[in-house]
Design a protein that fits this description.
The chain is of the alpha/beta class. The protein has three domains: 10-154 and 191-243, Spore Coat Polysaccharide Biosynthesis Protein SpsA, Chain A, CATH 3.90.550.10; 159-190, no CATH class; 253-355, 3-Layer(aba) Sandwich (Rossmann fold), CATH 3.40.50.1000. The protein contains eleven helices and 14 strands. Helix 9 (280-291) runs parallel beside helix 11. The protein is globular.
Length: 358
């Protein structure tokens, strides 16, 4: 009976998930940024609301060095059981120091040790709580993962970036087997992703045992937007986004039409579409635009030359590759944007996703 009880307890265990929102008072670029009013409430209150709305999170704590910030955080539903020491509330203080202090304090004063920590920066007020839950689920579903981190498609490729020494000599940022990658067309270079400072989910043991905020095995979670605030213009853009100001933010949902072959699928010799492979990078961008609320239409000219009905093959491929869309058309529909191998490029679409112009 004891053995059965142990097994049942193990499977009924609900992971203890702690959200920590770091909010120090010493911002230089935008003074008191973390309590600036945006869309009717203090900036840090948006992240508190996201954490409270996420069903997977059990506890929400704000780590701050300010009594004023602590009072504001409590008013909006967060706990502030301690004030952060001044030594780790400086411009160069690290996220690791903040989280290590919080976990040490909670263990020493409450004997509380969570299974999972969620890092929600107050400087990213545009966030979907469903993404928080999804990222926690990804971590819990794979014991080999140390962390899950939100990313967006990179607006610029690092393969064309350089270090410059004191003598003015250039050295590529990325050393790669691709011959002279910096001279290659962007379209043939591997896609890269930029962390968007929205959500990080990590196991507590990753932080305590590996002394890291990510560990070694990090799963990416692709998002469509980045709204990390470092200066006034970004604050205004985020406010427009939260207010749904379509004129200022240009966030009216758009219709995107994607050609399949040469964009989502590789081109195939002799129009044998059964041999097509998925362009994973472009599929990720399509899915990000779909998740952002845009209408996605896929179109193709398959069959115009061969006379073969490729509809079933095409639908099966889109399902197998996990491509999200609203309509599949054999022909060219009306749309705001056309993305095919002869028109709007992959990089241009990725930039639309990153800039929030979708």
């Amino acid at each position: 009976m004891a053995h059965i009880t142990q097994i049942t307890s193990r499977y009924l265990h609900v992971p203890n998930v702690l959200a920590i929102i770091p909010a120090r008072q010493g911002s230089k670029s935008v003074p008191h940024k973390n309590i600036r009013s945006i869309a009717g409430k203090p900036l840090l209150a948006h992240s508190i609301g996201h954490a409270l709305a996420a069903s997977r999170i059990n506890r929400v704590i704000v780590s701050t060095d300010s009594e004023l910030y602590a009072d504001i955080a409590r008013q909006h539903g967060a706990e502030v059981p301690f004030l952060r020491p001044e030594a780790i509330a400086q411009d160069h203080s690290t996220d690791f120091e903040v989280f290590e202090h919080a976990l040490d304090w909670l263990k020493a004063h409450e004997q509380y040790v969570p299974d999972v920590c969620v890092h929600l920066r107050p400087t990213h007020p545009v966030r979907n709580p469903a993404d928080i839950d999804a990222m926690i689920d990804l971590l819990l579903a794979d014991e080999s993962l140390d962390a899950v981190r939100s990313v967006v498609a990179s607006p610029e490729t690092p393969y064309k970036m350089w270090f410059m020494d004191e003598a003015g000599m250039l050295r590529p940022v990325i050393e790669t087997d691709i011959r002279e990658a910096y001279n290659q067309p962007r379209q043939v270079l591997p896609p890269t992703y930029l962390q968007n400072a929205s959500i990080d989910v990590l196991r507590t043991r990753t932080l305590l045992e590996k002394k890291s905020m990510t560990g070694d095995r990090i799963r990416g979670y692709l998002m469509a937007e980045i709204h990390d605030i470092d200066h006034e213009a970004q604050l205004a853009a985020a406010e427009a986004r939260l207010h749904g100001d379509t004129n200022a933010g240009n966030h009216r949902p758009k219709t995107f039409c994607f050609d399949i072959d040469g964009v989502i699928a590789t081109l195939t010799p002799d129009n044998d579409y059964t041999r097509a492979e998925c362009n994973r990078s472009m599929a990720a961008v399509v899915n990000a635009l779909y998740d952002a609320g845009n209408e996605i239409i896929l179109f193709t000219a398959r069959g115009t030359k061969t006379g073969i009905d490729w509809a079933e093959t095409t639908r099966e491929q889109m399902q197998r590759w996990g491509v999200k869309y609203h309509e599949l058309r054999f022909g060219k529909p009306a749309a705001d944007y056309y993305i095919d191998d002869r028109m709007l490029s992959f990089d241009a679409v990725a930039n639309l996703v990153v800039s929030g112009k979708s």
